[in-house]
Write a structure and sequence with these properties.
The protein is an alpha+beta fold. The protein is built from 2 helices and 3 strands; from the N terminus they run αβββα.
Length: 97
């Protein structure tokens, strides 16, 4: 059975920062939904923990990207380097994980 992971203020602050940086980077409305999750990967070659971010643009298109590090280690530069439009980060092109 999966048990929800409890997290503290530090984790909540990291999630809030990642959401704000994503809105800033992709010029999203301040009220736009941005989902941030930390997931475990057990596949060979994957880091033990990854951060996955999903958001929707004004045309109701869903976009997502992943960062190969735990959410507590994510910094603005990890998101700020992403260039192009959100559709340039299509997960269907991911070769792993």
């Amino acid at each position: 059975m999966l048990m929800p992971r409890r997290f503290g203020l530090e984790t909540a602050d990291a999630i809030t920062s990642i959401q704000a940086w994503t809105r800033q980077r992709f010029k999203l409305d301040p009220a736009s939904a941005v989902l941030v999750s930390e997931v475990a990967c057990r596949m060979p070659g994957c880091p033990p923990l990854e951060t996955v971010v999903a958001f929707w643009t004004a045309d109701d298109s869903r976009h997502q990207f992943r960062l190969l590090k735990p959410l507590a280690d994510v910094r603005y530069d990890d998101i700020g380097w992403l260039f192009g439009t959100p559709s340039a980060h299509d997960p269907s092109t991911w070769s792993c994980c």
